[in-house]
Structures are given as C-alpha cells and as structure tokens.
Specification:
alpha+beta, endopeptidase fold (from Nostoc punctiforme), two-stranded antiparallel sheet, 10 helices, 36% helix, globular
C-alpha cells in the first residue's frame, strides 16, 4: 500500500507533460495595432523639380518676345482738326444765297418775268457784285486806290438795301422812291449830300456829265426819262445793270439798262466826285 502511494507521488510531476499542451491565455495588447493602410509619403516637389528663376528679357526667344504685349506708350489727346476757313468766293456765295432767300417773296409781285427766272437773274447779279468785294475786312482793302475803295462803299451800301419796298417820297429804310434811295446811299456811305429829286441830280454841274452808256463805270448816277424830261435815277453797278427803286408795288432791285423797258429810256449819267 505504501509502495503504491509512493509510486503515485513520483508519477505526479510527469502528468502535465502527458496531458498535452496547456491552453494559452492571450496576452493583453497594451500598444496600438499597426495601421493596415500605409499613408503615402509626402513628396517634396521642390526637391524633385529644381526652382526655375525668371529668365532675363534677353533670354526670351525671338518669337516669344514678339508675342509679348508691348507696353502702350502714353498717347497725347488728339486735338480736333481746325475747320478750314471759308474762301472769299464761298463767303460771297453764302451772302448771295442768304439775300435771295430773304427776298424771294418780293420777286414775284407785279413782275412780267417768271419767279424762277427772276430768282436766277437776281442771284447772279448779287453774286457778281459781292465777289468783287474784299470780304475779309469791314472796309475796302488798303491796297486799292482810294477812289475805288469809296466806289465799293457805295455799292455795298446800295446792295444792302435790295428788297426794301418802294414808297413815294420815301428816304429811309422803311421805303424809298428812286431819288430818296440814291441820296440815302451817298449820304450814309460817303457823307455826300445830293439834291432831293432826280431832275436836280441830273443837272448837278459839279458832277461829270456822261452821255454814252459805254463809258459808264460802277457808282455813276444813271438817269431815265421820256421826251427829254428826267423822271428816274439809279446807281450803275456794272455789266449793263443798275440798282434802283422802280415803282409802287415793287422793291429795290437790280435791272438791266441796255435792254427791255429801260433800254430806250436812258438819257444821261453823272459821275459824282468822290
């Protein structure tokens, strides 16, 4: 019995080895488990691609330099072009057209010629008269002879009255008769006083007498009448024409004196010393 008990005690140490491996208790994890996904390392692009400094302007290729926008140079504000000064002829034409437009209503009254014919004749007369003037000054040019300048003053004063109505006995811009018109022009243009009526003007002894109409010059006084008696006066303006105040119902105008009604009524002329 004792012997059996002793054998059992001796066999006890070998029992675990005979029973097989003991159960293993897992170890408690005290550290964080490694991440399953591996983060991509950051790539230093500056380290891979060397920094490129701005190349100097001289290093640009010719084509690139040509494509580069050039800096706009400061542009001075453009000055408006000055309008060309009108020529003397343009001034004369403009004056003739303005006068014609103002007088058209008067041209057709009590006149035997059609309105369009009268308008064309009138425009041509005024244009020729004004074209001879020095339109750049208020007085005739100093280079002209004094007598010619004074004649032009008479013609300017006379043509300025074209279109003024006829008025028997009239001596002002409200209306003129023939001698009233002539006296007004010479008084205001040159300060020369003439006799009041045409017969007395025709007899003025200190004015040169002219009987041949071919010897007339602008500024001469021209007289008309019947049976040797003067009854009308006007101012010769050249080219066979004279300026006058015709009769009742008509206005101051330019007419031909070598044809028509006045052609066979011319009697004489006087050239006033100016």
């Amino acid at each position: 019995m004792l012997h059996s008990l002793l054998s059992l005690l001796l066999a006890l140490p070998a029992l675990p080895a005979l029973a097989g491996p003991a159960a293993v208790e897992p170890e408690a994890i005290t550290q964080a488990a490694p991440a399953l996904a591996v983060a991509a390392p950051e790539i230093d692009m500056a380290a891979l691609v060397p920094a490129v400094a701005d190349p100097p302007a001289a290093a640009l290729p010719a084509a690139a330099a040509a494509r580069a926008p050039a800096k706009a140079a400061p542009v001075a504000a453009a000055k408006p072009a000055a309008a060309p000064a009108p020529s003397l002829r343009q001034k004369a034409d403009a004056a003739a057209n303005a006068t014609l437009a103002a007088l058209l209503p008067h041209l057709s009254g009590n006149d035997s010629l059609p309105l369009l014919d009268r308008s064309a004749m009138f425009a041509g007369d005024v244009s020729r008269l004004l074209a001879a003037y020095d339109l750049t000054q208020g007085v005739p040019a100093q280079s002209q002879p004094a007598e010619q300048s004074r004649v032009q003053q008479v013609l300017k004063a006379a043509t300025a009255l074209i279109g003024t109505p006829y008025r028997w006995g009239g001596t002002s811009t409200e209306g003129f008769d023939c001698s009233g018109l002539v006296g007004y022009v010479f008084r205001n243009a040159l300060g020369i006083e003439l006799p009041r009526v045409s017969r007395e003007m025709a007899a003025k002894s200190d004015a040169q007498l002219i009987r041949d109409r071919s010897q007339l010059t602008p500024g001469d006084l021209v007289f008309f009448g019947l049976r040797g008696r003067v009854n009308h006066v006007g101012i010769y303006v050249g080219d066979g024409q004279f300026l006058h105040a015709p009769s009742r119902g008509k206005d101051v105008r330019v007419d031909r004196m070598d044809t028509g009604y006045w052609g066979n009524r011319f009697m004489q002329a006087r050239r006033v010393e100016i």
